Every structure is written in C-alpha cells, then in structure tokens.
Amino acid sequence: MRTKPLCRALRAAIATALLVATAVHADDAPPQKKTTDLDNVVVTARSGVETRTKAETSYSITTIDEDRLRMQAPTSVTEAVKSVPGFWVESSGGEASGNIRARGIPVDGYGSVTLLEDGIPVQHDPALGYLNADQAFRLDETIERVEVVRGGPSSIFYSNAPAGAINFIPRQAGDTPEGLIKYTVGNYSLNRLDFWYGTPIGGGWKLGVGGFWRIDDGQRNPGYRANDGGQLRATLSKKLDGGDISFDVKHLDDKVALYLGIPMRTNGSGDIRAVPGFNGNYGTLAGPETEHLQMREGDGSLYNFDNSEGTHVKRTQVSFKFNHDLGDDWKLAESMRYNTTDTQRNGVFPNALQSASSFIAQDSKRLSLIPGATALQFRYVDNPGQVFNTANQNGNGLVLTDGLRGVTMPVNEFINDTRVLRQFEFGEQTHDVTFGYYHANFQQDFDRYSSTVLTDVEDNARPIDLVGIDRNGNVVGSLTDHGVYRYGYEWEHASGKSNTNAAYISDEWTVTPELRIDGGLRYERVNVQGYTEGKQTVNLGGSPAAATVLTGNGVFTHYDQTFSKTGWTLGANWQFSPRQGLFARWTSAFRLPNLSTYITSPTATPLLQTMDLAETGWKYSDRFMDLYATAFYTKYDNVSFTNNVFDRNGNTSTPQTGFASTKTYGLELEGTLYPTKWFDVQFNATLQDPKYKGLSYTDNINNGPVLRDYDDNQLIRVPKVSYRVVPGVNLMDGKLRLQMSYEHEGKRFVDTANSVVLPSYHVVGASARYDATPELSLYLYADNLFNSLGLTEGNPRAGELASSDAGANTFIARPLLGRSFRAAVMYRF
Predict the structure, then answer these.
(1) Residue 289, SS3?
(2) CATH: 3.30.572.10, 3.40.630.30, 1.10.1060.10, 2.40.170.20. Which one for 3-357+398-828?
(3) What are phi and psi of 634, to 5 degrees?
(4) 3-class DSSP assignment, residue 400
(5) Rounded CA gap, 460 and 442, in Å?
(6) CA–CA separation, 281 vs 279, rounded Å?
(7) CA atoms within 13 A on the CB side of 88
(8) What pLDDT, in 10s, does the model give residues 726-758?
(9) Beta partners for 682?
C-alpha cells in the first residue's frame, strides 16, 4: 500500500465515521450511558492545580474503565492495551515480555512508551535490556482503570516516553469498608485468586490491601507448571488540610513461562501451519527433557539451567505520594518510589532449524574428532538405543539448534518527581503552571550464560546426541555431551549504574472557556557508568562440545558517559461545543542512550534518538456515541538496529548494525456506538504508512562489502491496517452482558529488507458477565475461539535486518496462543 491508496483508505474511514455518527445521533432510541466520555477526568501526562477532562485535553488519550477492563480480562499488561489505536501489541510470548510498537516508532518491548503505576514509572527505563517494564508489573484487581496517552506531552512529564504513557491507576479506599474477592479457573489448569479490601482505620487514615495468587500449566504446556506466584500490596492514605499523603508497599514473587517461536511450514496451498508432528496452537519446544541441565562453565563450575523458572521476578516496591498547599496559592506534589528487583530469565531459544540429513552432511567434516567413526548419526539422549530417522522422524525429519539461555539481572532503583504548581489569573484568562524536577538512579548487574543443544522437532522437544558410529553401527564417540552441541556460546558479566536528572515546565493557558493552549519544555541529563568483563575461549576437554567455551578473561572495560537533550511540546484544544472539539499538537521528543546500550557493549558509540511527532484530532461524545479521530505524523531519527544472527556452523552470534530514520503518516479511530440501551459497539482502528528512510548498512558477502539499502521499506512487525470491533448486548435490565471481539492485523514483515512476510490474520474472542445479585457476578471468557495461527513475529535470531529465513519453506515463527476458556466468580462486599 502506497500513499494514494492509504489516503483513499483514510478518506473512506473518515466518511464512514461521519455517516455512522449522523445515523446514530438521529436515532431517538433511549441511550445506555448517562454522561459523556468527554466528562472523564484525565490524570496522565499533565499537571496542574485544576482538574482537566477529556473535553479539555489537547492530545490523544484512551481510557479503559473498570467494567471494560473486566470484560476484556487481559492475561497480560500488553493485552490490556490491545484496544488502543496507534499501538501494535504482541503478547504471544506469555504474561510478560510483550512488545508494543506505537505510531511508527520502530522499537520493540516498551522502548517507546513508559509504564506507570499511579502516575509513577514502574521502571525508569522500561526497556532495560532483557528487563522490560511489563516483567516487573502484574495486573490484578487492585487496579481500577487504565489511561493511555499516545504521544502528546508524555515526553515532557516522563523519561523514555516519546510515544506515550500507560498509566495503571490503583483503587482507593473510601469512607466506608468495601472489598471484593474473585476466583478464576481456566482449561489450562488455571487457578487464580484476586482480592482487594479498603477501609477507614481511624485518625483519618484509610487502608487498602489486595493482590493475587495464581498457578497454571500455561496455554503452551511445557510438561511442568508454567506460571506460579503472585503479589501483595498495602496502601495507607490520609486526607490532610490542604493536601493528602499515601504510602504503598507491594511485593511480587512470580514466575511466568517465556513462549518462543515454533517450527512452521508453508504448505502446498500457501497456508502457514506448524510442521507435521507439532501442534501450532498449543505446542512448545520447552519440555521436561530441557527443563534442567547442568551446563559446564569456563571456570570449571556448573551452571544450573532451570527452565521451570521462566521469567522469575522477585520485587519489593515502596511508593510515597504527598500533595500539600504551600500557601499563597502554591502547591507541592511529591512522588517517590524505591524498588529492588531480582530477575532470572531462562528460556529455550530456537536458533536454527534444518533437516537432519543436511545437518549431518555439514558436520561430516568433524568426523575425524571421533577416532574409529565412519559416519555420523543422531541418537536420543534419554534413549541412546533409539536412532533418529533422518528421513521422517516425528513426521518431519527436522532438528533444531536451540540456545539454553540464562540471564540474571538484579536492579536497585530510586525515582523521585517533585512538582511545584500555581495557577495565575490575568483577567478572565488563567495560566496553570508546573515546575518539575525528576531524578532517577539505578544500579544493574547483568550475567548471561548460554549453551546450544540439539533437539528433535516435536511438542516438548527431546535432546539428541550427534554420535559417531563404526562400520557395524556401534557408537564409538560423540560430538555432543548429553545433547549439548557447544557449552558457553554466550557469556556476559557486567555491571553499571545510571543517574538521570531532568527539569521541566508546563503551562496550561485558558484563553477562553472554549480555547486552551498548553506547552511544555523538558531538559534531561543522564550519566551512565560501569564495566564489562572481556571474554576468552577455553577448552575444558572431555568432549568437542567443551572445546570452545566462552568465559571471562579478567580484563574489565570501564565506561563513563554523559548525554543531555531538551524536548518541547505545544498543543491547543478548541471545544467549540459541549459535545465536540478539535485539538492539534507538535512535539519534539528524544530518547537518550541508556545503560542497556553499554551493559554488554562498553565501547559503543550510540547516536541520540530524536523524534518529531504531530497530531490533530476531532472528538465527539454524547449519550449515543463516543468518537475520536486522530491523524498523526511521526519522524524518528538515528534509530540504531543491532541484531545477533546465529551461525550454526561456528556456533556464534554475529552482530549486524544499521542506522535509519522512519516516517509514518496515519489515522487512528476509536469510540463506542450506543444505538439502544441494550446494544453497543466498541471499535478502534489504525491506518498508517510506516516507512524506513535512509536505512542502509554494509554487509560482508564473499569477503567483499555489499551495501544494503532498504529505503521506503515497511517497518518490521507493524501492519498498515489493523482494527478491533467489539459488539455487545445488555439483557435482563443489564444483569447479563454478552460481547464478542473481532481483531484484524494486516500484513507485516519479519525484517527491514521486507523479505519475509507475516501474513494478515484475524482472531475472535467472546466474554460474558451475569450479575446474579448486586454483590455476586459470574464471568466467562473465550480467547482465540477459532484457533487462529496468526504469526506475531518471525525468528529474530535469523536476523531482523535481512532474515536468513528469506525464501525458506520451513522456518521459525511465533503464532498466537491457542483457544482457551476461563470462568470467574466475583463477590463484592
């Protein structure tokens, strides 16, 4: 799709929205809602003495209230924002480690949006290497609602938030005791308990306590418990004369499975399916045979790889908020958070897939390492007498070179945000001004150790040994050690700290009751320093698998770098009638180099990433309809692309780096139609044209430089067209609600070369709520009803600049999670 077709699609979408608005408004059926969506108060990406509603806000914001959140019942933080236009979300990896790409910013994970809890960053850098912010946060019934800002002034009030901010807002205890308890079961052995209770405790203080506990085998069952753990939190709060104060303590101890790519194949009809012998909807390579492995390390010790840990996070978080009237109309707003987070992240990563016969042919040159051997053969580790059938084992005859990767990341972090506010009046005009200072300091250690293991291709794959046999078929030696093809193909030991200071100012200028102009300025400075230990290769002996083990060499490379930048935003909102308004905004944002840039690359020379973001929108809301249409433009400069391409022959990962800019034009639509009191339709859609500009890098082909130029190629993983429609009915005077969701994702690409296609797909879900009494509610959920095998990503280890899977009939990709069912009962008291 090029510019003209996209423009036609944009015009058609706008015309359709206007026609629907006219039709619905003309319908005199009784409305379901009592107030308009524009009356909702906004607390994210703004600061001021006065409250501000969506009607008065000059940027795009999506609000997900308590009821919608429960009906959607997201299984992860990433799933919670799939109803937000402009966001492409990918949660096929499980409850944590999701990906969000926003408004044409080509950054995975949470690298372009920040994750907030009660307005405070969950993590200063939400994309801290292998530690995304969603790994350190779990959604439960202590959260009341979600506000999502797309672009706007988020980069003025928060660090590392060029494309927006996602704010999970907790429940607050009221003047009377109240609470809830919710129990959920699922067809993947899910058992989950959520609770929350809030009550006054005397002296004006209020206490809120809550959390969750959950166990399940996972939607892709590894043969052992996949998800296990929970969290507890307690909040003390009090209203003061001229302010309020709150203390919040939360402890998380939870481990979740990390789902990775699986072997897929294009069949004769052109459809993509899992390879024979593998279940694409529910299968996973991880299994009991790869759950535990003692991996030999270069210093002679053993690394205990335990894949049942998955992503195991132990986090204690303490938060403090204080608002106070300083007198003479000045106000103080203080937010503080300290956390200690210990993360162990293990996974079985599928590095390379090929036929068993070609693997043996390639490795035949190593036959001399096994004296007396005349041929190579695969045998199962758990049954050495079982010979692997290279022609058709498991119906596919394929083998995988997997990376058993363990990463350890302890982090200690302190965040403080201080704001001084005052409203100035000049006649009938006002200026609501905020002066802010932000400080963040964190220390991170990083250790990684990985070995390659050969496995067959089936659900819960089994390790195989590559053995040498003599002329009589007897095993005389092995190139592998209990399936391990190479110990220590990855090794890292590093430590660093980051210190960030920022000063910002914002002004919300009320020119007239209908016209408001706001702007902001942020200066930020970051210092990163630390060390990374160098590597050497050692031969441990005893097996060819231990002949080239990476380990530390005792030589430390230190770094100490400082970066700074200033960003700004300017917006205006014209609310020309109580039901509708227009807004426009321009933002110059940035993302400074961070500790992740250096933690394993101490000699890196990063470029400052800068962005220009523009948006203009129309918002309309009455008792029959909410409708928001926003056109946006994003220009992103100096994006560095580095991916490690796994080479099975050398058992090494080779870095490839590219630098580029991107330009994206798009349109976002979202809203809800209320034709009658018993029927409504929620919808969101994104139409965009995301392109790389100036993306080029030099490749080494046959010992010669070759320039790769991917100018105007489509951004990886980002579709040009995506939409979600959720029709629902309210029956029995609102006691029963039934709704379905239909999601469509357009064609995407695995790599910047646009050589590997991720086909378009759709997925259907359903949910129901029945209020048996005012206190007791029952819920039913069905996800991916028709077992869609939509591919969310390819194999990053095949290269994301130019994938080595290009043209392959059999490849690695990660599809959606298969069909699942859940039921819940909730009691309020």
Answers:
(1) helix
(2) 2.40.170.20
(3) -135, 130
(4) strand
(5) 38
(6) 6
(7) 27
(8) 999 999 999 999 999 999 999 999 888 888 889
(9) 672, 726
